[in-house]
Structure to design on (373 residues):
């Protein structure tokens, strides 16, 4: 096992941790209870899944627009997906997979193997997510939705080719091609023992069993950041920390959006050399995620109430109620997405949008999208 520096602080700096720990515990409990009986719980979860996936890549220094992610997820891209967009969608799919599975699935051996993308690692307790159906030619946003893994491999091979071209021009000899099933040394560090690193990280997870669940999540993500068990797995550490909160019963109605909360904490605090400062930053990120979730929930609930008032004296066969629920459940919607969801024509979808008075979000005359901003 590699000699890594990740271990639980002994003793824990309780004086520094007490106040942010109470704040994080309280904020998470209030948000989870609010969502438990909320009429827009499913819509809130869908919206925050997109936001948290984009935030995870933002923390890695890459910007992906929510609009592009929503359209890509619906199979209605208006341009070829970028490498960053494919990575963000992979995070989104992993988040959904964790949220839809049993609370203890993500941290189990089968869950970790599946989330690592190991060949042959299939968890039969989790229903596979079906790929979106291809959009028929002639509909809005009619570019086909490419497979994310295929695009990831394509961009990785392009990066490798560029790196090899530079080495060739510098006079270096080309290394032999990797055998089938082996990782390309131009893309992966072959000395990176993922199994040993994962085992060490999981040992730290086990050591947090008797600690408050919120503090345990902060320690688990801090250990993940230090050990870095997996290569090319952005955002997975925070998803697993959120899964730990579900497994230990702290949140039952949602999977916490820890990446979204981390955006509110300055990088200097998240990457500070002092372990106590980093732990406080992790707890502040959890509290910020829950508090922002509460604000957004109340704003979207108010928006839904105002939209429902426009249904007065509408005929019972009107599709506006369905459109309202669909708009609440997505950060953005296009005419093609509405037409597919409500089984109507794109022209009828635009008429419904006009009746509802939704705000146009793209500023374009073509490939327009609407939402509650």
């Amino acid at each position: 096992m590699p000699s890594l520096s990740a271990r639980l602080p002994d003793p824990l700096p309780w004086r520094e941790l007490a106040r942010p720990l109470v704040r994080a515990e309280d904020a998470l409990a209030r948000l989870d209870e609010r969502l438990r009986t909320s009429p827009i719980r499913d819509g809130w979860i869908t919206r925050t899944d997109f936001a948290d996936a984009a935030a995870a890549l933002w923390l890695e220094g890459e910007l992906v627009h929510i609009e592009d992610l929503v359209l890509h997820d619906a199979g209605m891209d208006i341009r070829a997906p970028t490498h960053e967009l494919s990575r963000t969608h992979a995070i989104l799919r992993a988040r959904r997979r964790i949220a839809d599975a049993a609370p203890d699935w993500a941290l189990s051996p089968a869950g970790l193997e599946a989330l690592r993308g190991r060949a042959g690692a299939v968890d039969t307790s989790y229903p596979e997510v079906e790929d979106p159906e291809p959009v028929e030619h002639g509909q809005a946003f009619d570019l086909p939705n490419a497979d994310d893994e295929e695009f990831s491999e394509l961009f990785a091979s392009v990066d490798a080719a560029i790196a090899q071209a530079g080495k060739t021009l510098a006079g270096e000899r080309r290394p032999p091609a990797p055998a089938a099933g082996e990782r390309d040394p131009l893309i992966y560090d072959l000395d990176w023992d993922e199994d040993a690193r994962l085992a060490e990280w999981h040992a730290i997870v086990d050591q947090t069993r008797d600690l408050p669940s919120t503090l345990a999540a902060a320690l688990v993500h801090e250990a993940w950041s230090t050990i870095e068990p997996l290569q090319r797995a952005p955002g997975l550490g925070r998803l697993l920390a959120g899964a730990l909160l579900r497994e230990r019963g702290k949140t039952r109605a949602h999977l916490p959006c820890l990446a979204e909360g981390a955006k509110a904490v300055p990088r200097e605090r998240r990457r500070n050399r002092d372990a106590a400062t980093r732990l406080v930053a992790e707890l502040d990120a959890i509290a910020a995620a829950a508090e922002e979730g509460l604000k957004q929930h109340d704003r979207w609930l108010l928006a839904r109430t105002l939209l429902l008032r426009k249904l007065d004296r509408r005929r019972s066969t009107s599709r506006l109620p369905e459109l309202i629920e669909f708009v609440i459940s997505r950060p953005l919607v296009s005419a093609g997405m509405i037409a597919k969801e409500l089984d109507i024509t794109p022209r009828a979808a635009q008429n419904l949008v006009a009746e509802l008075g939704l705000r146009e979000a793209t500023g374009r005359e073509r490939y327009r999208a609407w939402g509650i901003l």
The first strand starts at residue 333 and ends at 334.
